[in-house]
Amino acid sequence: MTPPFNLYDFSRPALNELLADWGFSHYHANLLWEALYQQQGDFSALRPDLNGRLQSQTTHALPTAVTDLASADGQTRKFLLRLADGQTIETVLMQFEGRDGLPRATACISTQAGCAMGCIFCATGQMGFTRHLTPGEIVAQVLFANQHRPAGSEPLRNIVLMGMGEPLHNYNHTMTALDILMDHKGLSIAPKHITLSTVGLVPGIIRLADEARPFRLAVSLHGATDAERQALVPPARRWPLADLMDACRYYITKRQRRIFFEWTLIEGQNDTPASPCPRPTAHRPGSARQPHPAQSNQRLRRPTDRGNGRQDLPVHPRRLQPAQHRPPTARHRHRRRLRPIKSDNQTLRIFS
Prior knowledge:
The protein is an alpha/beta fold and 352 residues long. It contains 10 helices and 16 strands. The strands form 4 sheets. Strands 3-4-5-6-9-10-11-12-13-16 form a 10-stranded mixed sheet, with helices on one face. A two-stranded parallel sheet has the order 1-2. A hairpin with a 5-residue loop joins strand 5 (88-97) and strand 6 (103-108).
């Protein structure tokens, strides 16, 4: 017997095609699409014969929460979600106040169960790779987060693909999921409110540019030299900084978009005065042979219960200490040392 297929795996054109094969018009396909994404899966308005076939041959269940951890201030919730096959993934819902004073929310979603990249400071990288998520499993995280947003807040409008997995390693499924999320007849999440983060898979960055994907791109650097980066991010051994910067320059030139560069500060590893360089030079975040628009976002590393991934990678003194006892280490030194870099077409900002 053929297992039921997940309706959230289908883009709107694919869903139209499926229902056409079943003998139903685009009108009914549009009703089904609205039921999935605007009516929380309520099929009561559909024709009985279509509803019956959907119930027998398809599924549209959301994942279930195994754990729900909240931050001390209650503004961030991390969910461990169980998928249909029993695999678990993480989704994070971050709440904040918008400029108009209304509560808003951002969902941080996963694209894989585990990760094959093996970054030594990353908890998911230490788990190893299990499997790619389907488009529906990626989409379902957003629907789940939308249902758990604060009472009275606007519908979820911001998504970051910075959870478990490397989105460009699961390229086709990730792009299908984003097409579904951006569809104007569904959740209609604006591309400018979606950010995809990659450790630097060069072919994927080039493909994003060639396909003119409209969302934002963030590239995780974590090191200012090839030796420094390769010690932390194994894919850097295949795509050195020169190749990565060429791909970023190609993306920026073709898309006319700014790239975000991410940098996880690790005590004594990549927070020295030489990294990142305070002004653009070759193989540094600011420039590699020619300036390009970019923003740099630096964050402190928080070790995990799985260990440090390598015995010689130091635990940051911030670990498990109460907020009032956190020492002014890496981030504060960078804020004192680094200043905004400006040129005709570049601004490299260091965010705290």
